[in-house]
Amino acid sequence: xxxxxxxxxxxxxxxxxxxxxxxxxxxxxxxxxxxxxxxxxxxxxxxxxxxxxxxxxxxxxxxxxxxxxxxxxxxxxxxxxxxxxxxxxxxxxxxxxxxxxxxxxxxxxxxxxxxxxxxxxxxxxxxxxxxxxxxxxxxxxxxxxxxxxxxxxxxxxxxxxxxxxxxxxxxxxxxxxxxxxxxxxxxxxxxxxxxxxxxxxxxxxxxxxxxxxxxxxxxxxxxxxxxxxxxxxxxxxxxxxxxxxxxxxxxxxxxxxxxxxxxxxxxxxxxxxxxxxxxxxxxxxxxxxxxxxxxxxxxxxxxxxxxxxxxxxxxxxxxx
Length: 320
Prior knowledge:
Layout: H1 10-32, H2 38-51, H3 57-60, E1 66-72, E2 75-81, H4 86-89, H5 106-113, H6 119-131, H7 145-156, H8 162-167, H9 171-183, H10 195-201, H11 207-218, H12 223-240, H13 243-246, H14 250-262, H15 280-300, H16 308-317
């Protein structure tokens, strides 16, 4: 009697197929994996030499520039590093070029341009709304620094080709230019004078009193500041409407723009009313939280009610 052929086990065949597929995937991954480029290896050496060690501000703030040279494969990278305190690096600095727009008071720019909203704000917003509303992380992802500086120089020199430049640049660089403009204003959009009041108003527990306080303060802003803020506010709300694409919620936008629009000029600003002593880091955190909450409050309002006496002025002013 002939021997009956053994029947194959379906489970065994499935396991073999899976093993084979897994082996092919691993071979494919191995083929795709490339050794790090010389630039990547050099950057890793930079990180290990300078960035990984913990730097103590107390020991570095009084020192001069620290210089080092990192060499690899015939390439030398010369690096200079110096500690700069947070309060100085974020301090608003007045412009040395009053004919430009960066670092120049907003009322000076709008008067010169005969506009209600600075041209740089309008152009950046228009370009972002044209092609950046669905860009993931818009306003959060940093643009290329050289592109931002090129746009800054173009706006400061009143370059008529700036709109052409913007169309050729990554939209994140345009977003970065807009943030830089507000960050370099010699006085925040919410003004140094009213800033402590905004910080105090947002801390009120009574919702009715808070709304009355915040709206009255907002309408107390100088007209160029107010109209520009309302223009930006409407834009940020439109950005948040595309959150499903760009991942930028109202809270995310408030986190990005709050300190940019509200951070006061004075480096020693304090908003805490607590009688207990707090550390510098805690004070800084409380201040930033207040700045974020103020902007978030206005972003969450359906509309900004204005008295009849001012409504006509604002309606006219927003025709930019």
